Amino acid sequence: MTAYGVPQERDWDALTDEEFREHIRAEFVANYPAHLRYPPRRLRWRDLEDWYRRMARKGWIAPAWPAEYGGMGLSASKLLIFLEEQERHGIARFQDHGILMIGPVLMRFGTEDQRRRFLPGILSCDEIWCQGYSEPGAGSDLASLRTRAVADGDHFVINGQKIWTTLAQDATHIFVLARTDPDVKKQEGISFLLVDIATPGIEVRPIRDIAGHEEFCEVFFDNVRVPAENLVGGLNRGWTVAKSLLGFERVSLGSPKFAEYGLHVLVETAEACGVLDDPVFRDKLAGLQLDVAHLANAYHHFAGILTRGEPLGPDVSLLKIWSTETFQRIADLIIETAGAAGGLAGEVDVGAAEINVLAAYYKARPATIYGGSNEIQRNIIARNVLGLPAG
Amino acid sequence: MSTPVPIPPLPGPEEADAETLGMIADAVAAYAVPDVARTRRVRDSAEGFDAKVWRDMAEQGWLGVLVPEGQGGLALGLEAAAAIARRLGYAAFPEPYVPVAVLAARVLSRAPESALRDDLLARLVAGDLLPGVAWQGVRGGIDVTGTHVRAVPAGDGVHLGGESRFIPVPGADGFIVSASADGGLGLYWAEAGQEGVDVAAERAADGTRSLRVTFSDALVPAENCLAAPGEGAAILRAALAEATVAASAEMTGLIERALDITLDYLRTREQFNRPIGSFQALQHRAVDLWIQKELARTTLDATVRALAGGAGNLDGWETAASSLKARAAIAGRLVAGQSVQLHGAIGFTDEYELGVYVNRALVLAAWLGNAAEHQRRFGARAPIGGALPGQVKGEGRS
User: A38, A251, A255, A264: which to substitute to probe chain B, counting the most B Cβ within 10 Å?
Assistant: First the structure.
């Protein structure tokens, strides 16, 4: 019996890696809706709810979590296989910050009561989490955030504003970095709070982006009362909690899947435009194929460290830089290849097929900004890996 | 694509546990300490390499890590050879380790059994023989069918005629010659001093010598045939793939050293009353160089793992080697050029340490196929359309 989630259908360790891969793949092939494979942008919860609730019922919603907390409890190699197969099949990501972030945070920093309260909702997909970090005045300089949380009896009262909150309109909960002590060094006065979005005083406003989508939002807090027991990791310890997630984020943002998807669209576009065998195109393609192949090598190096449970160093920032900038170069070549149709929106006639030739461009644009802009990542490497002096 | 060609087998097994590899790496690191004064002396000498250093390397067994035990080697495999080459690159050693102890040793190891083969290997391992592999025509190229040497039957041997180039083995005692004959490529042993073999040396950017050999009806007796026509191509291709990996390992070591020198300079050189490494424009450029180094390093590790053990087929080996060499050459050229820029004028002087690495990077980037050639071969062979196996064309779009 497990205290969280549903019991696993079998002992995964008893399967060979190949058997496990076949088992996972069979489920994806048989049951994942074909029209949702490789979506050109983030899909909404209404599109993905059926699939992820199915994953939740099977006990597959949290492949990286230990079995005692309701995860699949996979070994390092089987976890990699699971993620690989998920990417290979083009399975869309939902607003998974509960699985990827809150779960691991509560396992490490949470109290037993907090785990009992929040892990089941994450595992069942009844509660969807989003990340309240950035503010209008705190982007790259996140630690200068100004959203305040003031203790008031057994509650905190939050006032302020978050922005660039991905898919907040799908979320039932938000984890918030808020200033609880304005009189100390900026990193030392921040706390990590768990907040129900239905709490009075919260307003979520989607932001329309240049692609015409609404993937991120503004979230306003007006005297929002949050129970004190929703504080994670201790008062003024929020920066430590948040930092523990950064390495993981830089690995997942460094996955080669975005660039591999881009290459796929690039080749389809070239084929439809009749330039696939053009030597100039092929040379450019080969250069990008190399960049993606070598990204995959670097990714597996860091994923190996992560899945062995070893600490990631600041050098992991290279993954985010290389994957997102490679993706942008691919997106640029898609547009170049499409010629005159490179200025048309949506699925457009490019010759022998209809292809959305701008989807990769729009998807790649914010990738060098979110999760710590690439300039910030370069600062981190310069300072903490290369040992270059502060400016 | 045609039927996969298997890797020509070695006469004996190879094995290296982590402990042995660690010991080799430590020994090479202790011996191959960067000493550009020595590198320059060797560069400016008549021989073009240091005979004492070569003997030391033989005594430590490094020349035999890719040679089977039955032929006097250590049979440790490609991981050990790559580790040695990487450290020699870090120390800018001008000695021809990869051309002799990887390329020639591997051609001989995979050649059919013969008294000549075993004799050549034993002398190579002992440091008593410097064999060059003559396989490229005067314009270079990475396809083994591009040889400009012909083998024409003469009595029970052959006459070799034609020209071969880009053999970075100064003072080579002889050549393993890849020659086209009726029936395909054969491999022949020709002595450097024999009649009909004319050896000229071209000076490489780093001062080492690259040999250019003209064969004019050079008579090769039957017993000097190392691989019969038709048997030579697979042996040579496998050895070239491994040598390309080892040369990339050497380049990776070189990049690591050039970057170390440059980062030290950025930390200590002051202008405008502050270390120039505190300027963000320079920091970000240094990070981009470091990223290229990391891509080369992780790709090197993955490629060595893929080839060590001998599994796979020739096309796969060549594709993997091309992927790696393209990255190593791109990274090497970029780091070399940008390191000069990050130093300023001092980086362009021969007196300063960096130049030795810059010039060596030019040599290694061009040898065995440059970035453009390997990128082209990789592109022609890599699965087109990116890595989305299992994906039916067009199905993925929503």
Answer: A264
DSSP output for A138-193: BSSSGGG---EEEEETTEEEEEEEEEEEETGGG-SEEEEEEES-TTS-GGGGEEEE
In 3-state terms, what secondary structure has residue B373?
helix
DSSP string, B1-63: -PPPPBPPPPSS-----HHHHHHHHHHHHHH----HHHHHHHHHSSSSS-HHHHHHHHHTTGG
Task: Give the A window 147-206 contacts with B, CB below 8 Å.
Answer: none
What does the block give as tokens for B52? 């004492």
Write b or e for each residue in A215-244: b if 16 or more Cβ atoms lie within 10 A of its Cβ, otherwise e.
bbbbbbbeebebeeebbbbebbbbbebbee
Among all residues of A, which ones are annotated catalytic? 249
- Cα-based torsion angle of the residue sequence B191, B192, B194, B199 in order, rounded to the nearest 10 degrees: 150
With a CB-CB cutoff of 8 Å, which residues 196-235 of chain B face chain A?
Answer: none
| A300 in contact with chain B, both atoms CB, cutoff 8 A | yes
A355: chain B residues, CB-CB within 8 Å: 397
Beta strands in chain A (DSSP E): 129-132, 148-152, 155-166, 173-179, 190-196, 202-207, 216-227, 231-232, 347-349, 354-356
Q: Which is nearest to B185 in space by CA: B121, B120, B140, B136? A: B136
Residues A52-104: tens digit of each pLDDT: 999 999 999 999 899 999 999 998 788 888 988 998 898 999 999 999 999 99
Q: Tell me the chain A residues in contact with residue B388 when contact means C-beta distances shorter than 8 Å.
A: 38, 88, 90, 260-261, 264
> Which pLDDT tens digit goes with each residue over B235-278?
999 999 999 999 999 999 999 999 999 999 999 999 999 999 99
Contact state of B298 with A282 under an 8 Å Cβ cutoff: no
Cα-trace Rg, chain B: 22
Of A34, A256, A375, the CB nearest to B395: A34
Is A362 in a helix, a strand, or coil? Answer: helix
Q: What are phi and psi of B168, to 5 degrees?
A: -85, 55
**In chain A, positions 33-62, which contact chain B (CB-CB < 8 Å)?**
34-40
Task: Give percent of chain B above pLDDT 90.
Answer: 90
Among A265, A269, A276, A318, most B C-beta atoms within 10 A, so best to mutate, is: A318
